[in-house]
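Quick board copy: two proteins, each given as sequence then C-alpha cells.
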Amino acid sequence: MKANTKSGKLTGLSERSSDMVLVVLCSIFLFLVAYPLYYILIASVSNPYDVYAGKTFLLPSQFTLEGYKAVFADISILTGLLNSLKYTIIGTIFSVVVLYLAAYPLSVKNLPGRKWISIFFIITMYFGGGMVPTYLVVKQTGLINNIWALFLPGGVSVGNMIIVRNFFENNIPGEMVEAADMDGASKWITFIKIVVPLSRSIMAVMVVFSMVAYWNDWFTAMIYLPSPDRAPLPLVLRNILIKSSASASQASTISGGFAELNRMTEMIKFSSIIIAAAPMLAVYPFVQKYFEKGFMAGAVKG
C-alpha cells in the first residue's frame, strides 16, 4: 500500500509538473503573440519620439489621441468603414454558401466523377493564370468598378473547401442521410435540415476565415474598384498614410515643418493599424468556442 501511495504521489507530482510547464510555455507564447499588438496600441496613443526612445515598453508615454483625430478627420473613413462592412458581409455569405455547395457533393462517396472533380479543384491550388489574365477576364465580363469583382474571381478557397469536405465525411452520420432519403426527403431538404445544422462548428471557422480575408483585402479593391467612394477601409487608411508620408517629405524644404509632420505621420501609422484590426478582434471572441472544435474536426483523419 505504501508503494502504491508513493507511486500515486509521484504520478500526481509528475502531472502537476507537466501542467506547470504547459502553463509557462503557453504564457510565453501568449506574450510573444499578444505583445506586438499591445505595443502598437500603446504606441498609437504615445508621442512617437518616446516610442523610438524606448519609453513605451509597457505603458503609454505622453498620452495623446492626435493620431486617431487625424485619421477620423478624413471624411472618407466613414465611407470606407461602411464599404468594408458591406463587402465583408456579402463576401462572407457568398464564400460560405459556395464552399458548402462545393464541399458537400464531394463528400458523397458514390458521386459520379468525384475523383476527377476533386483533382480539378486541387489543380487550381498550384496553377493560375496570374494577375494580368485575371484582370482581363474581369474586365471582359464587365466587373470593373463592380463590387462582385471582389467575390467572383476568388469566391472559393480550395483549401477551405477540402477542410469542409473532410468535416462532412467524418462528422455527418451516413445513417441520418439514408434515413432522410428513405423518408422521402429531397437532397436539398437533407442538406438544409440535416447537414447544415450539424456543421455549425466548421461553418464558424469558415466565417472567421472569410471575414478576416475580406476585411483585410485592399489590393483587390485597388485593382478593380477605381472609384474612391467604393474603397474599403484598409485601402482608405493606406491612402491616408501615403498622403501624410508625402506631405512629410515635401515639408523637408520648410523650416521646422518636417519634424512635426513626420511625428503626425508616425501617429497616423500606429492608429491606422489599430482601427483596421479592432473590428476583427471584437468579433473573434464570440466565435472562438467553435473555432478549435470545427477546425480540428475538419482536419484529415487517418
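And the next:
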Amino acid sequence: MDDVSLVTVVLLVVAGFAAGWIDAVVGGGGLVQLPSLMVAFPGAAPVQLLATNKLASICGTSTSSVTLIRRVRPDMRTAIPLALLAFAGSLLGALIASQIPRSAFNPIILFVLVAVGAYTLARPGLGEVTQLKWDGRRHYAIAGLTGFSIGLYDGALGPGTGSFFVFALVGLLGYGFLEASAKAKLANFATNLASLVIFVPQGAVLWGIGLAMGAANLVGGYVGARTAVAKGAGFIRVVFVVVVSAFILRIGYDVVNQLVG
C-alpha cells in the first residue's frame, strides 16, 4: 500500500469529506468511502477495506454526534440503549466480517437500499414530525433490537449503516428525521468503535490512508451536522432520497457488471 499515488490520496481525502457530510446529514457516508477504497486498493482484502473505512468514519461520527446531541437534544433514554446494543451487534459482525466474500458486498447492499428507498418514496409525510408508534418497554425493546440488528450488519459489511439507522428510527419507531439523525449518529459512533476493537488487533487497518480520510471526514461531519440542524427534517429527507437513489444506480451498475462478467 506504500506505492499509492498523491492523486489517489487527494481523491480519497475528498471522498472522506463528502462521506462525513453525508453521514452527518442523513447517514450512509460509507457508501461513498468504502467504494472509493475498493477502487483505490483493488488488491486489498475486504477486511482491510472495512477496517480502514471504520477508522475514517469514527472521526466524523464522533464530531457529528456531539454536535447534533448538543443542538437537537434527543431523548437519551432511547439513544443510549440503541447505541449499546448497536455496539454489541457490531462486535459480533466484525468477528464474522473476514468470512464474507467480496462478491457478496454489492448484492446485499443493493437489495436493502432498494427496499429503503421505495418505502421512503411511498410515504411522503414520513419523518416530518416525531409521532412515536410505541411507548414504554415495547419502544425501548424495539429500539434495542434495531440497534443490535443494524450493528451486526455494520460490523460485517458497513456501507449505509447511518442511513439504515435513520430509516429504522423514522419508519419503525416514528421519529422525525432530525431527531432520528441525532440518535443515529450516536449509534453509528458505537458501531464504528466496536468494529475497531476487533479490527485493530488483527492489524487490518491501513493507518496512513485511514487517518488522512478521517481528518477530512471529521471536518465534513462537523459541517454536515450544522447543515442538518439549520435546514431541518425536510432537507434531510430530500438528501436521504437523493443519496439512496444515487447509490442504487451506482451499486446496481456494479452488480450488473458482476453478473455479466
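Board note added afterward: Residues 169 and 180 are 6 Å apart (CA to CA).
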